[in-house]
Amino acid sequence: MNTVIKYTLLFVIIISLGSCGKFYKLEKSTNWDDVYTAANEYYQEGEYSKSIILYDKVLPVIRGSEKSELAQFNYAYAHFRLKRYIEAASYFNNFYQSYSRSPMAEEALFMHAYSLYMDAPDYNLDQKSSKEAVTAIQQFINRFPESDSYERAMSMVTDLQSRFEKKAYEESQMYYRLTEGLFPGQFYLACIVNFQNFAKRYPNSVHNEELAYKLVEVSTAYAERSIFSKKEERLQEAIEFGEDFNRKYPESDFNKEVVSLVEQSKTELNSHQKLKKQYEEIKAREAALRKEKQEEQQEDEVELEEAVKPANAGSK
């Protein structure tokens, strides 16, 4: 039994060495027909790394010929099979640009988009490549609206859009958490802007009700902590956010909290307006006193001038 295993291993080693020797010779060969044929064979056998090496060697030589079309298509797919998605996307796009009338052009354009989609990261990472993928998918859909891959392309767009939405939601939550820190003021405004932008970008999101409630909560806190000159305007805005919430979500579980926050803002606004009125009355009285004092000073000056005139006249 040991002898059989030994000879089997020896046979496998010999075959492997022969295969490596063949590939080494092809790497050094200038017989382009052999290199081209071997590249296609390695590709068909799933030896994608070897096929790429040989395609790299032969493609510059056969470029423009009939053989180049299949070679470039396989070359792009070989990168895709090895999960080199960015390179694959580029090569599929190059193929489409060079062979837009090829029977394989539709598949190449789809694979360009699909490669970018496969490279798109999770929602919590930078979404630049995901946005590039959406652009590529939309290009495919516009170019081939009747394609069998249309539904698949649309599902890819939906998936990517959900990642954008989730990332935007997590960013909103991050700003919200920061309002509980040592310096909440700057983050209240960031929250207000972020929550409003989210609702505009994702009007059908399941998170809109929650964020609309938090918008009322944050805007109320922001208004209460505002400087005197900005307080009235911000309290009125918080009240508007609350009333808008109740119109949009009349059956919401957050209704009691929102009603309470609106009443809180109205009470604060009423107190502020009274204080503002008192302040304005004090300012008005102070202004009147200053004016009265100025008038008295002017009268004194006139009287002094009149008193000095006769003396000046007598001296002449």
Supply the number of helical segments. Answer: 12
What share of residues is helical? over 70%
Shape: elongated
Question: How large is the radius of gyration?
Answer: 39 Å
Number of strands: 0
Report what the structure shows:
The structure is a single chain. The protein has 316 residues and is mainly alpha-helical. The chain contains twelve helices and no strands. Helix 2 (32-44) runs antiparallel to helix 3, helix 9 packs antiparallel against helix 10 and helix 10 runs parallel beside helix 12 (255-315). Mean pLDDT is 87; it is low at 10-18.
Task: Give a short overview.
The protein is an all-alpha fold. It has helices spanning 2-28, 32-44, 48-62, 66-81, 85-98, 105-119, 128-143, 150-178, 185-201, 208-224, 228-248, 255-315. It is elongated and about 125 Å long.
How are the SSEs placed, and which strands pair?
Layout: H1 2-28, H2 32-44, H3 48-62, H4 66-81, H5 85-98, H6 105-119, H7 128-143, H8 150-178, H9 185-201, H10 208-224, H11 228-248, H12 255-315
Helix pairs in contact: 2-3, 2-4, 3-4, 4-5, 5-6, 6-7, 7-8, 8-9, 9-10, 10-11, 10-12, 11-12
Features:
single chain, 316 residues, mainly alpha
